[in-house]
Amino acid sequence: MRLRPTHLRARLTFWYVSVLAALLALGWAGTCTLLFLQLRSQVDRFAIEEIETVEGLFYFDAAGALQMRENYHNHPESKEVIDRYVEVLSPEGAVLFRNEKLGRRPLGGAPFAGEGVGGYSQRTARLSDGTRLRLVSRVHSLDGRALLIRLAHSEEPLYAGLDELLLASLLVLPVVLLTAGVAGYVLAWRALKPIERMARHAEEITAERLDARLPDDDTDDELGQLARVFNETLARLERAFEQLRRFTSDASHELRTPLAMIRSVGEVGLQKDGSREEYRDIIGSMLEEVNRLSSLIDNLLTISRADSGHLQLHKAAVPVMALAREAAGLFEILMEEKSQRLTLDGDETAQAEGDRLFLRQALVNILHNAVKYSPVGETIALHVRRDDGRVLVEIQDHGPGIPAEDHQKVFDRFYRVDKARWRESGGAGLGLAIAKWAVEAHGGTLTLESKLGEGSSFRISLPGAGLDGPFPPAVPAHASGFT
Ligand code: ADP
Questions:
Q1: Backbone angles phi, psi at 381, to 5 degrees
Q2: 60 ligand 1 Cβ < 6 A
Q3: Model confidence, pTM
Q4: Which residue, 126, 141, 345, 416, is the most exposed by fewest CB within 10 angstroms?
Q5: Is residue 410 lining ligand 1, measured as CB closer than 6 Å?
Q6: Is 107 within 8 Å of 152 (Cβ atoms)?
């Protein structure tokens, strides 16, 4: 069986009422104890005063028996003690006197060592009929004989008062707790109402409705903060979903074009009986599209791995000039075809801290653009230098340049400046996005300076490696023609 209430407001009320009941019980017990002790000390004080009165009323009669004067006219004070229990013992314990109220019942038994000597002894005791008493005793000397006088008050009225108080409290407590419970429940219900409202709104949020937001009453309380944090998370999710959706649709679009080309070239080839030469051309252009497709898929894979954070950088000191020579070597044939020249100069000792593969990819992408977009016969310059603990690589071409409004956009995925002529250059608009990601993943920056008609200059800034020093240039044989 489950005793815990399931609703938060019921749980809060339950705890609130329980704690209140415990505190009230504690308060009640404390108050009663204090009251009881105070009353008892008052009773003790009265008893002491009364013993002093009683002392003066005792006398030995002619037969040597102890008597108490009870004529009210000469000794009105004797009236005060008639309602108390009085007993007088000899130091040895022999009973010398018991008043009428006490009768034959013993009061407190045999004297204990030191009882009533040099002051008053106070204690609780019981009569044989169970009556609870507060007993005060004192040794008094009368006619040269020591007397142990005991005087006791009944504590029964005190206990009866306490019982009445307990009964009254037991009757009042449920009413108090019920009222507190109802008030607590209403308060909790009002305080938690906004959460219910939020939950209702949150239920309506799905992947298709990520633009929905939780109601934010613009308050600074915890619930207002919760709504704001949740809405910010939703906004981030919405942006991520939108980015993913755009990426998927752009990627499918990019993949569709070469596939459509392959298909149409294949269909045309099938429709006619061509010569061996013609078939070679058809297969050649199909292979060209397949190459385009596989490099596009490689790029898409790199980007999706980078997005998912699954790409791990294996950092080491990378000699940048050697890396640049290696990257440039890949375009040797292409540049020869376009009669282009690459000048490569700078600090041979410069080393960057990074993953060689990804830094190489960034350089290759930027160099490839420079070669692709520069006209026939132009020169491309690559310069490496060190600056304040960083390594700067500048790649400058004399191509068509990039309009100022596109300087930031060229780093976006699938962005091309000249949309009409992209099939000639063959890019899908991913090269610079990957280069920028690779550089920034190393704590570096990739910036562009370009003027239409004059050319472009891409600048990579990377953190330098601590151990700079002359490195044997890792130049691949085919790249040695670059100067
Ligand atoms: P792509 O694969 O299409 O070259 P990039 O991301 O590498 O994609 O480049 C994005 C666009 O930026 C290119 O389509 C091109 O229009 C422009 N661009 C990049 N580099 C250069 C350059 N060196 N000169 C002129 N335009 C460039």
A1: -115, 135
A2: no
A3: 0.61
A4: 141
A5: yes
A6: yes
